[in-house]
Amino acid sequence: MAHKDVLIVDGYNIIGVWSGCRYLKNKEREHAKTELIHLLADYQGYSGLEVIVVFDAYSIPGEGRQEVVNKLAVHYSSYQQTADQYIESLVGEIVAQGRIVHVATADHLEQTITFAKGAYRMTARELWGKLQLEKSDSAKHKSENRMKTNSSTIGDRMDAQQKALFEQWRREKG
């Protein structure tokens, strides 16, 4: 079985960059975090990538943890471990499995380090563009399917092969 490509997102880093943009402007940190998770869960659903978002828990005592929110893997670094350190370790593990990894962060040093470990770099702007492109493609596909199902007859919803099969059956009966 072929493994999916992986996208690792530096959560608070991306939120920080997007907060300066119109999209997340004036949203509180927790609301922005929830919104990012929602966007990435949707993106994972229509992109075919496995997406992991990592949040820094550097100053929160305890071990790092992982949870799944809307089928999206959400990871938190351990106490006194930065998200960057966590991501670097995660990239090493995934690349060692022979999988392709993309890392989305605006931190140039983190981009360089993860690139050296075998990951592809993605800026916050590139991630935003991919989210919007995939979202518009998905909406277009849904709209086309909706138009097909809103047709007035069954024949309007069938493709040419299905119509030919029914026509063949009709002729055999007659």
Characterization of this structure:
- By secondary structure, this protein is α/β, with parallel strands linked by helices.
- The chain has a single domain (6-132), classed as 5'-nuclease (Rossmann fold, 3-Layer(aba) Sandwich), CATH 3.40.50.
- The chain is 55% helix and 16% strand.
- The chain contains seven helices and six strands; from the N terminus they run βααβββαβαβααα.
- Helix 4 (108-116) links the parallel strand 5 (101-104) and strand 6 (120-122).
- Helix 2 crosses helix 5 (124-149).
- The longest helix has 26 residues, at 124-149.
- The N and C termini lie far apart (48 Å).
**Would you count the extended β strands for me?**
6
Strand percentage: 15-25%
The largest sheet, given as strand count, sense and whether it forms a barrel, is: 6 strands, mixed
Oligomeric state of this protein:
single chain
List the helices and strands and how they pair.
Layout (H helix, E strand, L loop, with lengths): L5 E5 H9 L9 H19 L2 E6 L9 E5 L2 E5 L6 H14 L4 E4 L3 H9 L3 E3 L1 H26 L4 H4 L2 H14 L1
Parallel strand pairs: 1-2, 1-5, 2-4, 5-6
Antiparallel strand pairs: 3-4
